[in-house]
Amino acid sequence: GDSVTQMEGPVTLSEEAFLTINCTYTATGYPSLFWYVQYPGEGLQLLLKATKADDKGSNKGFEATYRKETTSFHLEKGSVQVSDSAVYFCALSPSYNTDKLIFGTGTRLQVFP
Amino acid sequence: KAGVTQTPRYLIKTRGQQVTLSCSPISGHRSVSWYQQTPGQGLQFLFEYFSETQRNKGNFPGRFSGRQFSNSRSEMNVSTLELGDSALYLCASSFGLAGASRASETQYFGPGTRLLVL
């Protein structure tokens, strides 16, 4: 079945460091791909999305490119801030008839000043 | 535009009791999905409603049920609570597009209801 695999956390970085969080997926057809972020005590917020191969999603300095050849959707940011500390979830929406999102296990990011 | 709201935000119940959680979607959204989040299992899909009909269901026992009202508000119910039902229950809403656009539609999440079963 469809699935998402994320790199294990926590990821610990100093402020202004470069961030990469790896995400790979297994899916039939042409899923859409999402990154959601969860701050402590809150629900999920959409960070960015891409709906077809080679699309690049971007928001708040974060970017991810939908790579069908490597089935990947890695999240990157050039310079992280303390306020980026949160849990990041990669997710896919299958191409078949459902609103169900399939999530990865989440990666905790801790940024220190 | 108001976001997705969930009530109550926190709940403490004992084993064997039943609980009802409520979700009000963003105005204009007709699709509501529910997810359970636990440290061990992560985020798992419970079910999805559109126009008062359940469209999809995840792999949860029959103790978990839901419904949707004509104003798109949704409730989920868990009967005969078990300790393992302790979790953050998240609701998400979307317009509920049909056809090829459905996979690309963004779901907007509420803050969740944290349920503790003692």
Question: What's the structural blueprint in terms of helices and strands?
Answer:
The complex is a heterodimer of chains A (113) and B (118).
Chain A: E1 3-6, E2 11-14, E3 19-21, E4 23-26, E5 32-38, E6 44-50, E7 56-59, E8 62-65, E9 75-77, E10 86-93, E11 102-103, E12 107-112
Parallel strand pairs in A: 2-12
Antiparallel strand pairs in A: 1-4, 3-9, 5-6, 5-10, 7-8, 8-9, 10-11, 10-12
Chain B: E1 5-7, E2 10-13, E3 19-24, E4 31-38, E5 42-50, E6 53-57, E7 64-68, E8 74-78, E9 87-94, E10 108-109, E11 113-117
Question: How would you describe this structure in keywords?
Answer:
heterodimer; A: 6-stranded mixed sheet; 4-stranded antiparallel sheet; B: 118 residues; mainly beta; 7-stranded mixed sheet
What class do helices, strands and sheet pairing of chain B give? mainly beta
Determine the oligomeric state from the structure: heterodimer
Question: C-alpha Rg of chain B, in Å?
Answer: 14 Å
Please work out how many helical segments of chain B DSSP would assign.
0
Order of helices and strands of chain B: EEEEEEEEEEE
Question: Can you give me a brief rundown of this structure?
Answer:
Chain A is an all-beta fold and 113 residues long.
